[in-house]
Amino acid sequence: MTSAVSHTATTHRRDDGDFAHHDATRQPIVVKKFGGTSVGGLDRIRNVARLVRAFKDEHPEKGVVVVVSAMAGETNRLVSLAKECVRNPNPRELDVLLATGELVSSALTAMALQEEGINARSFDGYLARISTDEQHTNAKIQSIDGALLRDLLDKGGVPVVAGFQGVTPSGDFTTLGRGGSDITAVAIASALSAEACYIYTDVEGIYSADPRVCPRVRRLERVSHEEMFELASLGAKVLHPRSVYFAMRYGVPLAVLSTFNPARKTWIVKESELMEKPVVTGVTYRLDDAKITVIGIPKGGHPLSVLFSKLAAADVFIDVITQSELGGDHMNVSFTVPGETAEQVAQMLDLLLPELGAREFVIDRDIAKVSIVGVGMRYHAGVASTAFEVLASHGISTMMISTSEIKLSVVIPRKFSDIAIRALHDAFVTIDPENAIEMAAER
Ligand code: ADP
Ligand code: ASP
Ligand code: MG
């Protein structure tokens, strides 16, 4: 049966203000993205094919686009292979290598769908016309031309798009950063004006904390875009933060659900659509940041602007910043950076210390950033004091603190991270029997 898909705007430009308007009328198309675990073996790929078959049987009027990740563990394996081969893999070649993970799963998924009698065809980043900038291993989508995808949809077929990849204007493969298949899915949903984008994974939606750390968590019916963006940016890898940004920016209805038990799901919605606004919606953490302290900076001049403008020019992402007086006219400045950029920052600081007149710098990788997030924090005072009391009662002292309207983050010694996450979760999150998820925590 042919799906009723109209040929409206085919090009979707990237965010950041220069978005070319596309037809805001939602089309009867759904995008279903399956993560690494969901396509982690041939049985699971066949299970995905059956799930899509069942959906098409139930909704013959709807077009379906499938987006797949690489099979579980494959991208890690490819990264290790490259690093075993050479110390510093060339980013262009690394992207060619990494893109193969999703090519394998897209081809296998298309075969399994064909076996179910579906006219499926795999699309790599080139065929799916996903254009990106040239920032290898962390490229940003510039535009998607959905014409070829629509052609197949119009014939009732199912495009199976390799997630996580795109192509530069000069035809080189790029990848979108780890976890980037989520971005592919939401960007395609936006480009096709799909009625919804479903992210199928190994959990039944968004929970109040990572179930691998907290054994009893609350499953959330709805989470606002802002909360989800903060949770994702602050470590909850269940969704890539840029996929949440795309969903918010372009109004793509977005849901997270389990491939293995798809009965329940979490919708990511506008804040105005939330039924309730608990003070804390979720607790999350990052273990892969590093804390850098520059010691003995003379206060005269504009040392902070010199330091941070150099780091910004090198595209280093800085998160929490603290400044402390040393007495006299010197100070220390600490800031956190993603761990993988710490080496680059160290090299820059080697050159910058004389310019700043600073004494030395130290890097501490043994840290965790634990955060609580909730739109309800806007309306409640005393969240920070409760959080500090909870941490203190477990003997945990904070090294750095950062807050915004809807989040509070603390940097603490890494060895306390699990205790801190569980203690904050216990203190702030209410779990009722109907929304409880119990799992054996993995550590
Ligand atoms: P996929 O391979 O399907 O993309 P990911 O491993 O990227 O899946 O994301 C799913 C995982 O995210 C879950 O297994 C869970 O451990 C983790 N996770 C972290 N925080 C949360 C949260 N708040 N809610 C649900 N899952 C979470
Ligand atoms: N395969 C890629 C990764 O492991 C992208 C993804 O799974 O979303 O990061
Ligand atoms: Mg993922």
Question: Can you give a write-up of this model?
Answer:
It is a single chain. The chain is α/β, with parallel strands linked by helices and 443 residues long. It contains 11 helices and 23 strands. Helix 1 crosses helix 3 and helix 10 (383-393) packs across helix 11 (417-428). The model is unreliable at 1-22 (pLDDT under 50). The structure holds adenosine-5'-diphosphate, aspartic acid and magnesium ion (MG).
Task: Give a concise summary.
This protein is α/β, with parallel strands linked by helices and 443 residues long.
Number of helices: 11
Widest beta sheet: strand line-up: 4-7-3-2-10-13-14-12
* Shape designation: globular
Percent range for β-strand residues: 25-35%
Task: Bin the helical content.
Answer: 25-40%
Summed over residues and divided by their number, the pLDDT gives a mean of: 93
Structure keywords:
binds magnesium ion; binds adenosine-5'-diphosphate; four-stranded antiparallel beta sheet; eight-stranded mixed beta sheet; 443 residues; alpha/beta; 11 helices
Write the layout of secondary structure elements.
Elements: E1 11-13, E2 27-34, H1 42-58, E3 63-68, H2 74-85, H3 91-115, E4 120-123, E5 130-132, E6 141-145, H4 147-154, E7 158-162, E8 165-167, E9 173-175, H5 181-191, E10 194-201, E11 216-218, E12 222-224, H6 225-233, H7 241-250, E13 254-258, E14 265-269, E15 282-286, E16 289-298, H8 303-313, E17 321-325, E18 330-338, H9 342-356, E19 360-364, E20 367-373, H10 383-393, E21 400-404, E22 407-413, H11 417-428, E23 436-438
Parallel strand pairs: 2-3, 2-10, 3-7, 4-7, 10-13, 12-14
Antiparallel strand pairs: 1-6, 5-6, 8-9, 11-23, 13-14, 15-20, 16-18, 16-19, 17-18, 20-22, 21-22
Helix pairs in contact: 1-3, 2-3, 5-7, 6-7, 8-9, 10-11
The structure holds adenosine-5'-diphosphate (ADP), aspartic acid and magnesium ion.
